[in-house]
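Quiz preparation item.
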């Protein structure tokens, strides 16, 4: 046993690599290794001989196994040291531009819109994307016969036959967030509600899933004049122009009364949109004074409070501001497109530093 120990301890100490070490392990304590064969001889010994030889063989096996493990760890450390000497990286070097991540235009424009309205005192409110039929339609004064409630326009969740519970939908706008915010916070309130919405439509300017931001302000003496000022300030800040002219056209939305579509004066000279100049008009959003029935659904007394609401498509204004021709490209997962239209991860929009600088 002493000879076996000295032999393998010496061989293990001089092993040059892990392959040689594995060969020694097989020779010593493998199934047909020398020490393993010695242990098989225990069965032929008398009980007295086994009491002497057994512990010694077990101790020898454990010692060899420990020596193998220690040598393997030492070889691994030596290999790592060698790699570290030859493979190194200066972490203070700038990153390669092609490996930098980019911010999607939707995320960028959402941050721009949030920064603008936050400067005017609006808080961000959020809500679920799967809404009850009541929050999505009834609470917003949308009658049962309205076309928006048809399955050809709205995505309804599946219900088992005989299920009489109210239906649920993928929200068609972020207006349900306004109802939830009114119920939770009461009045006065000033919020915007950006987020994903869903409608059954698909072409160059429509997709089944897109993004909206809606605004709501409720107080004692709010009027359409306040709405006009807020929208003017938003358009000037978002398109980064000094002056802008808005045109309000009478319209109808079930959740506002009176209601108005809002156009901005612009020019399409050379195929480029220029806001605040020219003789063309561009429709950008819908707005109006919150309908009394909507206030009641939000548990707010319409005799004591009034307010305005508005909504616009984030995807649409992103296309207008950054010259993106096809809405469907937003969802194509094309890295070439994203590198072209994307924004630096460090380009955080602020009113003072510039929204898209």
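Solution:
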């Amino acid at each position: 046993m002493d000879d076996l120990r000295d032999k393998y301890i010496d061989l293990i100490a001089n092993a040059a690599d892990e392959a040689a070490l594995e060969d020694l392990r097989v020779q010593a304590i493998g199934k047909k290794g020398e020490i393993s064969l010695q242990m098989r001889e225990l069965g032929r010994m008398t009980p007295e001989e086994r009491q002497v030889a057994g512990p010694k063989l077990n101790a020898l096996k454990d010692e060899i196994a420990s020596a193998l493990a220690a040598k393997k760890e030492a070889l691994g450390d030596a290999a790592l040291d060698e790699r570290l000497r030859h493979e190194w990286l200066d972490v203070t070097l700038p990153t390669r531009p092609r490996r930098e991540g980019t911010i999607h235009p939707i995320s960028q424009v959402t941050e721009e819109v949030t920064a603008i309205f936050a400067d005017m005192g609006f808080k961000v409110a959020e809500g679920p994307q799967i809404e009850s039929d009541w929050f999505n339609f009834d609470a917003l004064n949308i009658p049962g016969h309205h076309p928006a409630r048809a399955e050809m326009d709205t995505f309804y969740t599946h219900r088992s036959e005989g299920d009489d519970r109210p239906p649920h939908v993928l929200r068609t706008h972020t207006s349900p967030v306004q109802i939830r915010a009114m119920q939770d916070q009461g009045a006065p309130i000033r919020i915007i509600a950006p987020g994903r919405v869903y409608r059954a439509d698909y072409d160059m300017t429509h997709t089944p899933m897109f993004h909206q931001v809606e605004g709501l302000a409720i107080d004692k003496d709010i009027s359409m004049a306040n709405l006009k000022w807020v929208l003017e300030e938003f358009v000037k800040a978002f398109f980064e122009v000094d002056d802008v002219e808005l045109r309000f056209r009478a319209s109808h939305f079930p959740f506002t009364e009176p209601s108005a579509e809002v156009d901005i004066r612009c020019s399409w000279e050379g195929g480029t949109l220029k806001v605040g100049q020219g003789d063309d008009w561009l429709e950008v959003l819908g707005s109006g004074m919150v309908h009394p029935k909507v206030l009641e659904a939000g548990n707010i007394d319409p005799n004591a409070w009034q307010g305005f609401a508005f909504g616009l498509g984030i995807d649409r204004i992103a296309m207008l501001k950054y010259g993106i021709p096809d809405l469907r490209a937003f969802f194509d997962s094309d890295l070439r497109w994203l590198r072209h239209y994307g924004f630096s991860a460090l380009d955080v929009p602020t009113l003072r530093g510039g929204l898209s600088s």
